[in-house]
Design brief:
Blueprint (H helix, E strand, L loop, with lengths): L1 H28 L1 H18 L1 H19 L19 H12 L3 H5 L2 H8 L9 H15 L1 H20 L11 H4 L1 H4 L2 H37 L5 H21 L1 H26 L2 H20 L10 H5 L1 H21 L6 H28 L3 H7 L6 H6 L5 H30 L9 H56 L6 H11 L1
Helix pairs in contact: 1-2, 1-11, 1-21, 2-21, 3-8, 3-21, 4-13, 4-16, 4-20, 6-7, 6-17, 7-8, 7-14, 7-17, 8-16, 8-17, 11-12, 11-16, 11-20, 11-21, 12-13, 12-20, 12-21, 13-20, 14-17, 16-20, 16-21, 20-21
Pfam family, one: BCCT
Family: Belongs to the BCCT transporter (TC 2.A.15) family.
Organism: Clostridium frigidicarnis
Length: about 500
């Protein structure tokens, strides 16, 4: 049995490394063909398959609400007497740091401000444009994103802690295809796609983080903005996140996640102090009202089309789906002992609520800036944060804190992804070899460099959308498999005590 596991390990591990190496060679040495190939795939997806992404995200949301109120809500993710491994604070910190990361700082000002100045269907710079900006930003970063993570993480935690199956996406297919096939070529293919989707999702964040760190250092300290500096940033942070990943979940990852949360809260509070607090509160509540309507009505329209939706909504849906495997496996790993109800409430609403507050605060700061400054800021989204805060008290100190936070997010996202990649490549072993963490962590950094060289920010964004397609199909089947498993093994959960009572009386 031991030898078969090692053989299985090598199939997934070597297969994912070979494909990653081919992509790296293609991007670096055949840049023109790489750009043409990815552009063709992207056009196919945006023109023909955008409905699939939108429909899938809507399905995730509906499923989470259903299971929250279903008869399965009190089932433990583990044995009936199991207890949570981590405190609520550490749990929230880890799932937040792994699940959002660099994007909050990168888009905190840039996205609401861009939507405000260049909205869809209304005049820019108006009150209607402001509501449009917050509604769409909340939609992109709110419950929909966390529903995507929740559904996969819940199924994984259930199959691992309650059914004692390996912490692998292929384990979720056991109810549909049987355990033998899930451990065979079909399962290995699923797990290889999981690794590739994970790498593409994290590469998007690492690419954005690298560009924003470089832009911030250039804006604040005149550090050159070029490929050499960007590669240096990636190398330094790669060393740091590998050290964290190699120390394990209970040490480096947990400690850094808690520190990360403190830094994020500190930056948020500093922005509240220097910004227009009353406007922030108003935008939060009015934005939530519009967002609520959008969830009920607009989000049901899965046949959205046009450049605006392709550049924004479709990109986010692809990004969340691409991030789902590694975030879900990591969240599942730290969620043992919680009930399904507690899990959904914690994962779906707490982080998304923090995101809404975050974008209300930083979006308001951007929108309330002088118009000429705002127009200048959105010319380059990497520097939007720093351009806007130059207009506010303590702007320089807040900008420095933001760069530190990006570094911190960079490390916590990458160390979580590295841990998950090594775990998948080790047949679901929750204590993978350090050598695999180092190799797979280095692979994601090398691919970040390759994609930045090949096409910059746009290329790393497009990669998420493309890789989300095969994994989105996998996720659709996991929902069916999870529901089947629940009804097969837990379906009589409410009636079992009654049956036992009847049997006792009979005898």
């Amino acid at each position: 049995m031991k030898n078969s596991i090692k053989k299985d390990d090598k199939v997934i591990y070597v297969g994912s490394l070979v494909i990653s190496l081919l992509i790296f060679i293609w991007a670096i040495f055949f840049e023109e063909q790489f750009l043409e190939g990815t552009s063709s795939l992207l056009n196919l997806i945006t023109n023909k398959l955008s409905w699939f992404y939108c429909g899938l995200m809507l399905t995730f949301f509906i499923f989470c609400i259903w299971i929250l109120f279903s008869k399965f809500r009190n089932i433990k993710l583990g044995e009936d007497d199991s207890k949570p491994e981590f405190s609520n604070i550490s749990w929230f910190s880890m799932l937040f740091s792994a699940g959002i990361g660099i994007g909050l700082v990168f888009w905190g000002i840039a996205e609401p401000l861009t939507h405000y100045l260049n909205p869809l269907g209304v005049q820019g710079g108006t009150n209607e444009a402001k509501m449009f900006a917050f509604k769409k930003t909340f939609l992109h970063w709110g419950i929909s994103a966390w529903a995507c993570y929740s559904i996969l993480a819940l199924a994984l935690a259930y199959m691992n802690f309650r059914k004692h199956k390996p912490m692998l996406i292929s384990s979720l297919f056991i109810p549909l295809i049987g355990e033998e096939r899930a451990r065979g070529p079909i399962g290995k293919t699923i797990d290889i796609f999981t690794i590739l989707a994970t790498i593409s999702g994290i590469v998007t964040s690492l690419g954005m983080g690298t560009l924003q760190i470089n832009s911030g250092l250039n804006y604040l300290f005149n550090v050159p903005e070029n490929k050499l500096v960007q590669v240096s940033i990636i190398v330094i942070i790669t060393i740091l996140f590998l050290i964290s990943a190699c120390t394990g979940v209970n040490k480096g990852i947990k400690i850094l996640s808690n520190l990360n949360m403190l830094l994020a809260v500190g930056l948020l509070l500093a922005a509240m102090v220097v910004g227009p607090f009353k406007d922030m509160i108003n935008n939060l509540f009015f934005g939530m009202f519009e967002y609520g309507k959008a969830l009920l009505y607009e989000n049901n329209n899965i046949f959205i089309k046009g450049d605006w939706y392709n550049n924004w909504t479709l990109f986010y849906w692809g990004w969340w789906i691409a991030w789902a495997p590694f975030v879900a496996i990591f969240i599942a790993r730290v969620s043992k002992g919680r009930t399904i109800k507690e899990f959904i409430l914690g994962v779906l609403f707490v982080p998304s609520g923090f995101c809404l507050v975050w974008f209300s605060v930083f979006g308001t700061i951007g929108i309330n800036a002088p118009k000429d400054v705002a127009l200048n800021a959105i010319q380059n989204v990497e520097t939007a944060f720093f351009v806007i805060f130059r207009e506010y008290p303590m702007g320089f100190a807040i900008s420095v804190l933001a760069i530190i936070l990006i570094f911190s997010f960079f490390i916590t996202s990458a160390d979580s992804a590295t841990y998950v990649l090594a775990m998948i490549a080790s047949n679901g072993d929750t204590n993978p070899k350090i050598s695999r963490k180092i190799i797979l962590g280095s692979v994601q950094s090398l691919l970040t460099i390759a994609l930045l060289f090949a096409g910059g920010l746009k290329m790393v964004q497009n990669t998420s959308i493309i890789m989300a397609l095969p994994f989105g199909i996998i996720m659709a089947f996991t929902i069916v498999a999870f529901v089947k498993e629940l009804y097969t093994t837990e379906g009589l959960i409410d009636s079992r005590p009654v049956l036992k009572e009847v049997n006792c009386e009979k005898y």
